[in-house]
Specification:
Two copies of one chain form a homodimer. By secondary structure, the first copy, chain A, is an alpha/beta fold. Chain A has two domains: 5-21 and 262-377, Beta Barrel (Lyase, Ornithine Decarboxylase, Chain A, domain 1), CATH 2.40.37.10; 25-260, TIM Barrel. The two termini of chain A are 21 Å apart. Chain A is 29% helix and 24% strand. Chains A, B: Pathway: Amine and polyamine biosynthesis; putrescine biosynthesis via L-ornithine pathway; putrescine from L-ornithine: step 1/1. Chains A, B: GO terms for molecular function: ornithine decarboxylase activity.
């Protein structure tokens, strides 16, 4: 992808100093409308952790989006952006008691959990609230896979939901997550099937959970393109029909990356291009942003962003892409076979595309004395 | 290790909210004096990136320490702490031209480099300065190993040093780094030998480099203890004698972790203890600090901190230790066989020992809406 001369002026001139994440909130709004259309009738909760930029949250409130929050600060940001507390789900299964009380006091009435310990806190600090129990799910096929950190086994989930009801909570539903940037549309079905089994078991003991939260994970185009969102919606719709039949719960989803990633372009400057030996085929290209400045998802080269420069119409050659800190793990791509123009030079701007999610808030406060990533709204 | 009742009061009472990194600057001063005594006559440059806390820098200035800086902000911090510009080495081999000019304007006269491109910038923006060429070194044996991001091959280093002289710079010396938390005292020798060869080659063409910067990497006690610093000093001293004989350059070292790590204790609160299946032997222990809040060096479980609670005199059991964010990679120790008291409960304080280095500045600005790690000085 080659920038036009005008874009270059914007990038290095009007833009000001790099690194800078430029967010186009209209793109986020379009992405919301696209996923809402694909999942007609579903409750769409934007995962605020992907990018909590106030202007972006305001645009999503206006578009009718709901929100998945993970902390006090995210609750405050959503409410400040005009969201109703009823549109908020506290989707993080691990919370301090004070955080639950804080959310409850502000009107939040839907909480995730996956353990007896967490349930006790919700009983104590958010009495009568709706709770959604998170199931352990396989995240095979995801570029940013999930560990066993969240979610419990089915037998435990059944016990926990019954326990929630006994303690005066509303056992509203079940949740699972198939891993972020999940490329395989078939990955949701096993958890939908599992959830349907648990719903039936719970119904036999008189409980009527009514929400299935199928999480996030919906992929975006990076260096490799994803299927259109309709492919994932169709696969989940088919799984819902197959496993729940006519007695379907409401579907809830929590897209974060899908809404925020395409809205962002990170403008970085080439600090140095070097070979470290006369035999090196690859050039080392050092940018002024790296793993500690916002590109944390390049850990293990998991998320591979597309790059654009003003010189992309010339011949290209292999590079190793590294960040600006004096830390030697601050390397983005060493094995992923990236190529950049042979004419690229120090001072040039490299645009890192699709960087609207999981970047700005991941940046360190000041590792090596480099300031955090700046965001600019267009 | 068990806290006394008094320590517990301090930890959870006077300390205020967790997570909080408590830094004892006197410990940092002691560590400086210890390493300065072990490396008698060497120039000790504290690697500011390890912990740039102003009070800590002031204590080191008073103790007579020099500084290794990696950015404008670190230069400003050192000068504000009372350091002389002559005591500063800009040890980061990759800098923006403006950063070199900034350093030069403030009196810095010693710069690292490892490529022709960087050399050109130093010639242009720091004329006449001393330069130290960084060699590629093996970091085998280090807990936080270095990649090939920094350092060039010996033949290139020779050419670069000659080129530096031709362009009016002072080819002051060579540098290498054996990897951080390097436990093996024998790891410095191969690079000392290599540097001695290069010194001799340069002397044959009339150059007289006078500094060997043996970098940092000096290990501290974490869960596993390191050898005393005197063991590393003795090994390096022996290598210097063996390979340089009587015609020895001045030795320069850049300890960061060695000085800062033992000065810090991170106080964290247990947010939740849970089992996620009835078959789980290990408990999941979720703290209010994790990989995105300052414990970045637990990536791949590389740095394994010692833990202390008030309940350590009771029976212990296996745990998986995870952080507070809703990100499933935010796990510190899953395979490292950590154990914590069976009586541990949510709300308890866990002290993470030896956390003075590479923690506070690694913390994210606000991932998941959690504020950055707070530092408190004692």
């Amino acid at each position: 992808m080659t920038l036009t001369a005008d874009e270059e002026v914007t990038a290095s001139g009007a833009l000001g100093r790099t690194p800078c994440l430029v967010i186009d909130v209209e793109v986020a709004g379009e992405q919301y409308r696209r996923i809402a259309a694909a999942f007609a009738g579903a409750q769409i909760h934007y995962a605020v952790k992907a990018n909590p930029e106030p202007a972006l949250l305001r645009a999503l409130v206006e578009a009718g989006c709901r929100f998945d929050v993970a902390s006090r600060a995210e609750i405050d940001l959503c409410l400040a952006a005009g969201a109703s507390p009823a549109a908020l789900s506290y989707g993080h299964p691990i919370k301090k008691p004070g955080d639950i009380a804080y959310a409850y006091a502000r009107g939040v009435r839907l909480f995730a959990f996956d353990s007896e310990g967490e349930l006790g806190k919700i009983v104590a600090h958010a009495p009568g609230s709706g709770v959604i129990c998170r199931l352990l799910a396989s995240s095979q096929g995801a570029r940013w896979p999930l560990s066993r950190k969240f979610g419990c086994t089915p037998d435990m989930a059944i016990d926990l939901m019954k326990s929630a009801a006994r303690q005066g909570l509303d056992p509203a539903g079940l949740a699972f997550h198939v891993g972020s940037q999940q490329l395989d549309p078939g990955r949701w079905e096993p958890s939908v099937a599992l959830a349907a089994d648990i719903f039936r078991t719970l119904e036999q003991s008189g409980h009527r959970p009514r929400i299935l939260n199928a999480g996030g994970g919906f992929p975006v185009d990076y260096r490799v393109s994803a299927l259109p969102i309709t492919a994932y919606a169709a696969a989940i719709e088919a799984a819902m029909s197959r496993h729940f039949g006519r007695d379907r719960p409401a579907l809830m989803i929590e897209p974060g990356r899908y809404i925020a990633a395409p809205a962002g372009v990170l403008h970085a400057e080439v600090v140095l291009i070097a070979r470290k030996s006369y035999e090196d085929e690859s050039r080392w290209v050092y940018l002024d942003v790296g793993r500690f400045g916002g590109l944390a998802e390049t850990e293990d080269e998991a998320i591979q962003y597309a790059l654009a420069t003003t010189r992309d119409d010339g011949p290209m050659g292999p590079v190793i892409l590294a960040g600006p800190t004096c830390d030697s793990v601050d390397i983005m791509y060493q094995h992923a076979h990236y190529e950049l123009p042979l004419s690229l030079k120090a001072g040039d701007v490299v645009r890192i595309l699709g960087t609207g999610a999981y970047t700005a808030t991941y940046a360190s406060v000041g590792f090596n004395g480099f300031p955090p990533l700046r965001t600019q709204i267009t």
